[in-house]
Automatic annotation (TrEMBL):
Family matches, as PANTHER family: BLL0505 PROTEIN (PTHR43032:SF2), PROTEIN-METHIONINE-SULFOXIDE REDUCTASE (PTHR43032)
Region (Disordered): 180-206
Keyword Nucleus: no
Recorded coiled-coil stretches: none
Taxonomic source organism: Speluncibacter jeojiensis
Transmembrane stretches, start-end: 64-87, 108-130, 136-161, 213-237
Protein name as catalogued: Molybdopterin-dependent oxidoreductase
Pfam families registered for this protein in UniProt: Oxidored_molyb
GO molecular function: oxidoreductase activity
Boundaries of every Oxidoreductase molybdopterin-binding domain copy: 275-405
Record's keyword terms, sorted: Membrane, Transmembrane, Transmembrane helix
InterPro entries with a match to the protein in the record: Mopterin_OxRdtase_euk, OxRdtase_Mopterin-bd_dom, OxRdtase_Mopterin-bd_sf
Amino acid sequence: MWRSPVRGPWLTAVFGAALLVALPVVAVTGLLDYIAYGPRFGQAIPSEVGWLHLPWFDWPTKPAWLFGLTQGLHVIVGLTIIPLVLAKLWSVMPRLFAWPPARSSAQLLERLSLLFLVGGIVFEIATGVLNIQYDYIFGFSFYTAHYFGAWVFIAGFLVHVSLKLPRMVRSLGSRSMRTELRTSRAATRPEPPDTDGLVSENPAPPTLSRRGVLALVGGGSLLVAVLSAGQSIGGIIRTTSLLLPRGRSDGSGPNDFQINKTASAAAIDPADAGPDWRLTLRGGHREVTLDRATLVAMPQHSARLSIACVEGWSTTQTWTGIPLAALAEHVGVPVPRSAFVQSFQRNGGFGQAMLQPNQILNPDALLALRVNGVDLSLDHGYPARIIVPALPGVHNTKWVRSIDFRS
C-alpha cells in the first residue's frame, strides 16, 4: 500500500486542492448554523464559549429555506468529503509517522498544525456521522464537543494552508491533469523523489493508474452524496437517503412527514392536548387565555415552509394558522422586541424558544393549527405549534403552552 507508484506530491496536491474548496464550506455553514440558534439568547449549544463567540446578528427569515440550505450543505458536504479525506490521509500517511517529528522550529509548527488538522477533522467527522445515525449515544454533549472541535480544526487548517499552499501550487503545476487522465495503468510511473518523502523509495508495480485513483475517490464521494442529499432536497430522491435515517416519518396522510421527537418521547400528557387546552398570551400588562376554538375562528394564513433539522434533513409542508404578529397585536405589543415561547414538553431539550423581532413580524411566521389542510397530529405539535421561515427546526416549538411578547 505504501509502495504504490501513484503516491506523490501531485496526487496529494489534487486531494488537497479539492479539500481546500470543500472544508471551508463545511466550517462556515456550521458556524452560521450556530448563529441561527440565537446564541445571544443562550439557546445555542454551547451557550458559553468565552472568546470563541461569533458576531451575533438577527438570523434572516428570507429566503425561507435559508437554514435548510446551510444545514444541508454542512451535513451533505461533510459526508461527501469522507472518501476524499481518507484518500488524502493515505497519500501522506508515511509522512505522519516520520521520525524525528521535527528538525527545526518551522517543522515543529508544521507538525503541530497537522496534529490539530488531522485530529480535528477525524473527530468532527466521526462524531458527526455517529450523531446523524444514532440518538444521542455520547457520554458528553455532542454539540459542545463539535463546536470546540471545529475551532481546533479551523486553527490547524489555517496554519497548515499558510505553510503548504505554495508547495501545493507548485506540485499541481508539475504534472498535467489532462495527461494523467489519459495515462493507463501500464504506463503509470512514479513521480521523481521529493523532499517530503511522499514518493516511495522502492515503488511496487501499479495496481491502479492515477486516473483510476481519482475515479475511485470521486466515485466514492459521489455515491455518498447520492445516499445523503435526498433528505435535504426532498421529492422522489428522499428514499435514497440511506445515510441520514434520523428524519423519521411519523404519521399518516397529510401528517406523514419527518420528525425527531414524538409526543411520547417528549412526555406530553394527553390532558395537555385535550379539550381543556388553553394558550396563554402575555404582552405588556395584558394576559389573554384562548382555547383552540377561539384560535380557529380568528383570521387564518397559510404558508408553504420548511422545517430543517440540525441532523441534516428538511421537509416542506403547507401550514395554516394565525400570524404571530397578529397575536402580538392582540395583547397590545405591535412591535415586539422578542417572544418567549414555552411548550408542554416535559422530556428532552428545546422545550422553549426565544424569537427575534423579524421572526415574529414575518407575515408567514405562524402559530400553526393545521398542516396540509388537516389538523396537526399530536406528534407534529397538536393543538398548536410555532412555524417560522428559516428557523432551526427545534425552535419551531410544538405543543405550545404560552407566548410572552416582550417590548
